Amino acid sequence: MRFFGGLKLEEAAELLGVSLPTVKRDWNFAKAWLRRQLTLAEPREEQ
């Protein structure tokens, strides 16, 4: 919602019906997860 919908953290929290700290925690988790996935991904061989 934040990335694709362009919502601010406060707007996402209200829409989801959760607290702002929950949205912040989930956002940080998602960024860390994505960073790790990209780091662990094997580089593709270029043809």
Report on the architecture of this protein.
By secondary structure, the chain is mostly helical. It has one domain. About 70% of the residues lie in helices and about 0% in strands. The chain is built from three helices and no strands. The protein has helices spanning about 1-5, 10-15, 20-40. The chain starts with a helix and ends in a 7-residue tail after the last helix. The model has no long low-confidence stretch (mean pLDDT about 90).
The backbone outline, from C-alpha atoms, is: elongated
Number of beta-strand segments: 0
Low-confidence stretches: none
Number of helical stretches of at least 4 residues: 3
Main sheet attributes: strand count, strand direction, barrel closure:
none
Q: How many separate domains make up the residues? A: 1
Give the radius of gyration.
15 Å
Instruction: Please state the structural category.
Output: mainly alpha
List the secondary-structure elements in sequence, H or E: HHH
What is the rounded distance between the termini? 36 Å
Mean pLDDT: 89
Q: In percent, how helical is the residue content?
A: over 70%
What share of the residues does DSSP label as strand, in percent? under 5%
